[in-house]
Amino acid sequence: MTGSGQASPRRRRPGKSDSPGARHKTRTVALLGGPRPEILAETQARGWRLLHLQHSNYVVPPGLEIDGALLLATYNDPRIRKALTRVRAAVRLGSAPAPEARRFPAVLPDQAAEGRLAAGHFAERGFRQVGYVGSRPLQELRPLFESFRDRSAELGMACHLLEIDRGALARSQDPHIMTKQRVFTDWLRTVPKPVGILAPNDSRAARYAFWTAEAGFNVPLEVAILGRGNRTEICESVTPTLSSIDPDKAGRARAACDLLARLMAGEPPPRKPVIVPPAVVVERESTRLLVTADPQLAAALRYLREHLREELSVDGVAREVGVSRRKLERAFQQHLHRGINDELRRIRLEEFCRLMLTTDRSIARLAPEVGFHNLANLYRAFKAACGMTPRQYRMRNAPNAERGMRNAERRGSGERRASRRGKTRRA
User: Fold this and answer.
1) Domain 111-248+281-287 has CATH 3.40.50.2300
2) Which residues pair with 50 in a beta bridge?
3) pTM for the whole thing?
4) Which of 1.10.10.60, 3.40.50.1970, 3.40.309.10, 2.60.40.10 would CATH assign to domain 295-400?
């Protein structure tokens, strides 16, 4: 996506100076908030020194000159406010606008694009009922809900909204979290099933999944849940694992550092936030299903997922589920609007993307794990679906995995050279 206020996809060359006067000076940039691997990778690529102030209770070491800061934590923290008085320029990376920190230029996610992406994710899986659960008032996340609602309507889905009143919760005699759970459960019982629910973040999504199971509903068969943020430490460590909107963390880090470099060079701050569109929905167990009344189609889809590593044929799939090829092809076109091979390719690419983001194994090793036994076919299919190569996708969305893969390759090469030298000496 392009347009006013949006981040440029062009990546700066590592080490490029921010201004002629700063050519030989190493920039020191403070990080105010929790650790972010993508920020470390981006600052290192620029030759900057990153100082993580969380470890020093946000106290700037005496005598140290800070050129800029990247603000991830809340500005209401007095320690953060004091630390920011020591920096010359600062950029805020947030998940939504924050009125209390409006004095700082911001890099924000494209909430409208995220809402549309979430609606499309549920529509592709056959849902006709979706919901959004947030706090009242929606305030800074209203664009997310409204785009989700509007796109859902365009795709023929009914959208249900639960706003949990913060004030009412605060006044309740019940423990705060138990009140939220009761409000959520009471609402969930009234919503037609199956339903796909969008949560404002991954922490909420994990909580909603637990409450759903506590209420006796199956995730994802009756209630599918989609998070926002793709925080793997949350999404991969709960049961079921959580699907989530990947906000393009590397792209946001790049946009924030681009903006900070301009501010440190003396340029005036932009009048509007820099908006970064999301990358993809990373599918995991919490939305991994297709809502369909056709049992043979459902069986075929399960078979494709369970055997995606194998060489599959349309005739073979039809034989396994006990239906004629023609009837199965007609069911795929009627319910999914795509053929069997197209759906198999989509499932394989979806799993391939997930593995690229969550492991540091090489592309050549991952390809056969998802049924691509010819790398040329993988690259051709991936480029057609994603508009970039697998390596470009991994560098954009998981720079640490790419670095780990390269380190593993170097270790492997070193071990092979050492082995050859040992054989030469023995000979």
Assistant:
1) yes
2) 29
3) 0.71
4) 1.10.10.60
One-letter amino acid at 225 equals I
pLDDT tens track of the chain, all 427 residues?
333 345 544 444 444 445 444 455 789 999 998 888 899 999 999 999 999 988 888 888 888 889 999 998 777 788 888 888 888 899 999 888 887 778 889 999 999 999 999 999 999 888 999 999 998 877 889 999 999 999 999 999 999 999 987 654 444 455 556 778 889 999 999 999 899 999 999 999 999 999 999 999 989 988 999 999 999 999 999 999 999 999 999 999 999 999 999 999 999 999 899 999 998 899 999 998 877 768 888 889 889 988 999 999 999 999 999 999 999 999 888 877 789 999 899 889 988 987 887 788 899 999 999 999 999 999 999 999 888 899 988 887 765 555 555 554 455 455 455 555 555 555 5
**Residue ranges matching CATH 3.40.50.2300 in the chain:** 20-107+250-276, 111-248+281-287
Domain 20-107+250-276 in CATH 3.40.1380.20? The answer is no
Pairing of strands 223-228, 281-282: unpaired
DSSP string for residues in 318-365:
HHHHTS-HHHHHHHHHHHHSS-HHHHHHHHHHHHHHHHHHH----HHH
